[in-house]
Design goal:
Blueprint (H helix, E strand, L loop, with lengths): L1 H22 L5 H26 L5 H11 L1 H19 L2 H6 L4 H31 L8 H25 L6 H15 L11 H7 L5 H11 L4 H36 L6
Helix pairs in contact: 1-4, 1-6, 2-3, 2-6, 3-6, 3-10, 4-6, 4-7, 4-8, 6-7, 7-10, 7-11, 10-11
Length: about 270
């Protein structure tokens, strides 16, 4: 039993590190740092100043917090998709399907580094919000905000895992990723209050990651306690787990289908 646990831990850690290195092997460190530091800044500048110009400067914290949390979708959607779908492009999918390794451990390893990377991107976005845009965190419970960032990033990676499975059956996954990413800008309530959206959009919003996390973060920045936002955080975590399970099951279905039809890597 201990040997099995040790093997799974090693599989988890090696999968986490190697998949993350493979994901960014084509970038130099300076390019990676620029993408982590400048990309959140560009999105924040665009939506914060557009939003406050269209409404009021008093609403700046609404746009800063919403877009800072939305940065989690960069690693959650694009990172997770490429971590899974990259095996198909690089011709290593057959090795995964051929190994007796626990698929759940493999998935968890792929998600771990993207969760850490996504949370780091959100923290950097909040730093930009404080330093350059005047976000006031004096009434914020920072530990509750940190937990909100982590849970929101986990739930977003759950959606990314599901999208990554789609990468196994289509070559147009980047189009789908971009569509979903920009859809989240609207449907998550990052830039438009949910109350102002049509009812059918609100119904979809609450079935997506980010929505409850953004609501919780705004309340925490406004002075709410962890207890006040715990229902929102539990809901956000539940949505993320739902997408993780769906992604895992979908991967299992595609694996059986590919082996039975002999269509491995030729979708």
């Amino acid at each position: 039993m201990m040997k099995n646990l040790s093997n799974n831990l090693r599989l988890f850690w090696q999968g986490a590190v190697l998949s993350y290195v493979a994901l960014f092997h084509w970038m130099r460190p300076i390019q990676y740092m620029a993408s982590k530091i400048l990309m959140p800044l560009a999105q924040m500048f665009f939506f914060v100043y557009l939003g406050t110009y269209a409404t009021s400067a008093d609403n700046k914290s609404f746009y800063i917090v919403g877009n800072a949390l939305q940065i989690a979708a960069v690693s959650g959607i694009f990172g997770m998709t490429m971590s899974i779908g990259g095996d198909r492009d690089n011709g290593t999918l057959g090795y995964i399907f051929g190994t007796p390794a626990n698929r759940l451990i493999v998935f968890m390893g792929r998600a771990f580094m993207n969760i850490m990377d996504g949370a780091l991107g959100v923290v950097i976005a909040f730093v930009w919000g404080v330093l350059l845009m005047g976000l006031d965190l004096s009434h914020t419970n920072l530990s509750a905000l940190a937990l909100t960032i982590l849970i929101t990033t986990i739930s977003t990676c759950g959606l990314g895992l599901l999208m990554g499975c789609l990468a196994l059956i289509t070559v147009n996954v980047m189009f789908v990723n971009n569509f979903v990413y920009f859809l989240l800008l609207l449907f998550s309530g990052a830039n438009i209050p949910l109350a102002q959206l049509p009812i059918w959009i609100r119904s979809i919003s609450y079935a997506l990651p980010l929505t409850r996390g953004i609501l919780a973060a705004r309340e925490i920045v406004g002075g709410a306690s962890f207890v006040d936002v715990s229902p929102l955080l539990l809901g956000e975590l539940g949505i993320g787990l739902m997408y993780f399970v769906a992604g895992y099951l979908l991967f299992a279905v595609f694996e059986v289908y590919a082996k039975r039809r002999g269509t491995l890597e030729v979708f």
